[in-house]
């Protein structure tokens, strides 16, 4: 079947389904401009979506690939992770070829966003699905008359069978801020990371791709424009405090996020791009 794109309802909300080559598919919700599902040709769902996720826009949808913007985490006075996760984006350009399907979602400032953050902007999230690969690009255009600065992330929730059994390679030799342990900055000296407790690490200036290995399944991630990588798992206790996570949710996810932790300055009229690529290998 040739790649195609259709408008669907997913958990009761408007979304686009990208049907890619060899049976690959992805679902992108208009709420949040958020990828919620990515299935590779082997039939496996690669993204975690919480069974208790809320789809009414009152809180961000827990799982998939939320867009955090114009603030990452609590690095400022805005709501945590900014405000675009709970806004409705508009469908933009769509294109399909023999080996890809591509869709763009767009969001601009309005009165409500300007009340929170007094700047004019236009965001485009472009999702390109190929057989074993998913590319996300966030473009930020400053449509106002003065420069602004933002932090942000593509907050990717990877689905894993059992997080205790996975390793993540590619972060050797990088400094990280350990947000789960008093924000101390540590240099990673291990060849890989294993998750054995709550983990909330901001790896800085990451230059290499990361490789998530889980038994005979591997997934590579790489980012451009976003210079930092966050590795996050809430583990048992924090997960238990999260209303939109099942008790065992922590076990089935690992966030490997493409992050801009240092403020990115966009002059008036200019554009910035950041990307994250996920490849099933
Ligand atoms: O619950 P939220 O707002 O989606 O945030 C989830 C997590 O997102 C991660 O990016 C942060 O590093 C964590 O500190 C945070 O807890």
UniProtKB/TrEMBL annotation:
<dbReference type="InterPro" id="IPR008183">
    <property type="entry name" value="Aldose_1/G6P_1-epimerase"/>
</dbReference>
<dbReference type="Pfam" id="PF01263">
    <property type="entry name" value="Aldose_epim"/>
</dbReference>
<dbReference type="InterPro" id="IPR025532">
    <property type="entry name" value="G6P_1-epimerase"/>
</dbReference>
<dbReference type="InterPro" id="IPR014718">
    <property type="entry name" value="GH-type_carb-bd"/>
</dbReference>
<protein>
    <recommendedName>
        <fullName>Putative glucose-6-phosphate 1-epimerase</fullName>
        <ecNumber>5.1.3.15</ecNumber>
    </recommendedName>
</protein>
<keyword id="KW-0413">Isomerase</keyword>
<dbReference type="InterPro" id="IPR011013">
    <property type="entry name" value="Gal_mutarotase_sf_dom"/>
</dbReference>
<comment type="similarity">
    <text>Belongs to the glucose-6-phosphate 1-epimerase family.</text>
</comment>
């Amino acid at each position: 079947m040739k790649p195609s794109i259709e408008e669907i309802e997913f958990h009761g909300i408007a979304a686009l389904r990208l049907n890619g080559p060899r049976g690959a598919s992805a679902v992108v919700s208009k709420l949040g401009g958020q990828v919620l599902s990515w299935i590779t040709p082997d039939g496996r769902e690669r993204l975690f979506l919480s069974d208790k996720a809320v789809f009414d826009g009152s809180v961000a949808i827990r799982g998939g690939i939320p867009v955090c913007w114009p603030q990452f985490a609590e690095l400022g006075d805005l709501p945590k992770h900014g405000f675009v996760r709970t806004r409705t984006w508009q469908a933009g350009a769509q294109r399909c070829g023999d080996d890809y399907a591509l869709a763009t979602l767009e969001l601009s400032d309005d009165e409500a966003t300007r009340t929170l953050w007094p700047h004019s902007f236009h965001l485009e999230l472009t999702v390109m699905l190929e057989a074993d690969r998913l590319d996300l690009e966030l473009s930020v255009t400053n449509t106002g008359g003065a420069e602004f600065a933002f932090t942000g992330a593509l907050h990717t929730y990877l689905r894993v069978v059992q997080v205790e059994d996975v390793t993540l390679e590619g972060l050797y030799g990088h400094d990280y801020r350990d947000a789960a342990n008093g924000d101390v900055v540590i240099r990673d000296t291990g060849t890989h990371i294993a998750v054995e407790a709550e983990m909330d690490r901001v790896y800085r200036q990451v230059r290499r791709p990361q490789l998530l290995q889980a038994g005979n399944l591997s997934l590579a991630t790489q980012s451009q424009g976003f210079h930092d990588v966050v590795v996050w798992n809430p583990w048992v206790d924090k997960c238990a405090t999260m209303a939109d996570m099942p008790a065992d949710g922590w076990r089935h996810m690992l966030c490997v996020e493409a992050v801009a932790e240092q403020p990115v300055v966009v002059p008036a009229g200019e554009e910035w791009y950041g990307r994250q690529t996920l490849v099933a290998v």
